[in-house]
Structures are given as structure tokens and as C-alpha cells.
Amino acid sequence: MPIYTKTGDKCTTSLIGGERVPKHDSRVEAYGTVDELTAHIALLGDMLKENNIDEFAQDIPFILQDLMVVEALLAIGEYGGGKVKDMSIERVEWLERRIDEISEKLPIVRKFLLPGGHMVISQANVSRTVCRRAERRISVVNNERDLSATLCAYINRLSDYLYVVGRRAYALLDVEENLWMPE
Hints:
Elements: E1 12-14, E2 20-22, H1 26-50, H2 59-74, H3 89-103, E3 113-114, H4 119-145, H5 149-172, E4 178-179
Antiparallel strand pairs: 1-2, 3-4
Helix pairs in contact: 1-2, 1-4, 3-5, 4-5
């Protein structure tokens, strides 16, 4: 069976429930950006493993699973209601606990940090910024369709998680944090 279906050849795609929409539909933009985020976080996970950083090893697979739920919720069309279970508040609370645990290990910073210093740190920051873009795309969909508050909270918290992962990676990799020094 071929991978191509040709159903998108006219720049449309199907949402869950069968509704066809243009590929520039806000829901498609949002779940496509979350898909991009998923790939970046998977790469971050691989880079963490490659650099023997296991502090986040168990987090990444759960986050990747959660992001598939986010994508599915964003892909629900007119007739797709009830086909995807909502993001649970427990997943948001789990992220909050992880952020708190990681933050306890971080020095206080009173200036903005510049990304970089190591590939892992840079990838954590790329993931964080793609997450923020996904959040902006999701905000557009939420304005149009009133999404689950839990979904919106999860994505917001995930960018915070990625920020603290990037900060924690400085210490784990023995790299000095790069502070912004405005003139």
C-alpha cells in the first residue's frame, strides 16, 4: 500500500470526523506546529541520551505521548466530537511538579539568558521557542473554537519546562550560563 493518498493534492486535508479543510486552516497550522515541536523534543531527548543526561530521560516519552493528544484535540473537525479524550489536568500538574523539582536545582538569575554554549542547551531553547509558537497558533484556534483550558495550560507549562531543562543543562554539562549584558 503506498504512503501517498492523493487526497491532499488540492491543498485540503481531513480532520477527525471527516471534515475537509484547507491546509492553511488554523487547526492544521496549530497541530502542524505541535508536530514540529514533537520532532524537536524527540531530538532533544536523543541529544540528552547521547550526552548521558538521564535526569529528563523518563520525561521525554511522556511528553511525546501528551503532544500526540494535543495534536489529536486540535484536529477534531465538525463531526469528530467525543472521538478524542481531553488532556487531563494531571498531566499539567505533573509538568508543574517537574518544573518545581528542576527549578530547585537552579541558581537564581536576575538577567536574561542567551541560549547556547552546547548543542543540548541550544536544542532545549529551540524546542522552547517552537513551543511558544505552537501556543500562539493554539491561541488562534482557541479564539475561534473554544478549546479545552487544560490543553492551553499544558502547552504553556511545557514551554516553562523546556526553559528549566535548558537552564539545568548548563550545570549538567558544566557550561557557564551566558547572560545578556545590555550596554
